[in-house]
Amino acid sequence: MFDDSHYPSSSLPPLHYLDSAATCLIPEQVVAVNQRYLQFEHANSHRGFYPLSSDLTDRVENTRQQVASFINAPCAQQIIFTSGATSAIHQIVQGYFADKIAAKHNIVTTVAEHHANFVPWQQLAQSVGAELRIAPVKASGEVDIELLTELIDENTLLLTISHLSNVTGVENPLEQIINQIKSINSSVKVVVDGAQYIGHYPLDVSTLGCDFYVFSGHKLYAGFGVGVLFCHQRVIEAMSPVVFGGGMVERVTNNQSLWQTGIRRFEAGSLNAQAIVALAAAIEYIQFARSNDAQLYMSELSNYLRQRLSAIGFCQFLVATDKATPIVGFNLKGIHSHDVASILAEHNVAIRAGHHCAQPLHSYLNKNSSIRVSLALYNEQQDIDAMIDGLEKAHTIMAV
Ligand code: PMP
Q1: What is the value of ipTM here, to two decimals?
Q2: Boundaries of each Aminotransferase class V domain copy (predicted)?
Q3: Mean pLDDT, the chain, as a whole number?
Q4: How many domains does the chain have?
């Protein structure tokens, strides 16, 4: 809808890219900003006194402000640039919780987390003999709030939970969850993995009430290399740097080092200014699209996807929900997801097959793997039609 540059008019067949939950293709506007950056604007920010560097420093800091406004964070000094969601979660685990956790504590999470928001907590809990408590999901794919709240007690250190599942596309009602768990134990911290949510829905971290919110730029049309860690003011002062080096220190002597006071103490080393500049362009792209009915467009396209999949009769959805979102997980009766993906690839349809870095969820659902179709702003109904044609072929060839 908003960029058809991925549908070449040459003799190449069009690619029906339905794997944006893995990474979004990069819109022309963002490519243009990247190219200009590489040709004329590349420098090391926060270092030089010459304009090439100092202008870039301003752009990086303006992007910080832009990100804060985009997610309605109270202030730019609560936005930390990382290399992605995974490294943002590591900053939280090692920088905030590692020196606060003890054997008596428990960490609450859900069975539907991406490994990036599961394994680091599992490892942290095991390192001190603390308990990792795992809330199940309901048949609809949403976390079971009743069972989740039963896991919270006076020794719960944190809840870590995704906003939108990368496997099922189901959204967790986070405001309700956060209110409920904080009413049981107001000191429980809440970490939200927003990697899949951020590209699809407006986010307001101030009303959400979470302590940490993370996402990656590449799921937001910006390409690889940048992630965001939002921290609530109540946690930021008590968080320590995890990576040490240039740019994050106030003073270094032979015997000791003093960190910078602001969030720059969490950004050691040369910043990936190229990716940050691209993130700024990607946010502009999304905001322009949203001011031109992108939300409506995506909800209609998501409904169309679900309706077409439901109609073929041999599609088994992973979870029973009638809420259509841009991500859907399913299997075809009697056919391995890898075979389906290979047949679709022959028809120039790109989807994802496997466990999508969510093995606990697949085990819980008693599945070895699944197919995931995920949409973005550049998709059209014809992409879904091509995918459905491919599924029908797979069914004809493979079904026993
Ligand atoms: N959480 C979720 C829900 C994801 O889908 C992903 C990426 N697939 C991540 C975390 C990790 O993101 P990244 O690989 O960009 O660090």
Answers
A1: 0.99
A2: 16-386
A3: 95
A4: 2
Q: Domain with 324 in it: what CATH number?
A: 3.90.1150.10
Domain annotation covers residue 15: no
Would you state the structure tokens that stand for residue 294, as one six-digit string?
Answer: 């992108």
- Sign of the Cα pseudo-torsion (197, 298, 353, 111, in order): positive
pTM beyond 0.90: the answer is: yes
Dist. CA 221–CA 287, nearest whole Å:
12
Range of the domain at 381: 293-398
Do 319 and 278 share a structural domain? no
CATH number reported for the structural domain that contains residue 219 in this entry: 3.40.640.10
List residues near ligand 1 (CB under 6 A).
Answer: 84-86, 114, 116-117, 162, 166, 193, 195-196, 216, 218, 357
Percent of the chain with pLDDT over 90: 94
Write out pLDDT tens, residues 294-317. Answer: 999 999 999 999 999 999 999 999
Q: Which of 24, 231, 315, 357 is catalytic?
A: 357
Ligand 1 atom showing the smallest separation from residue 88 Cα = 16
| Active-site residue, 210 included | no
How far is ligand 1, taken at its centre, from the CA of residue 355, in Å? 13
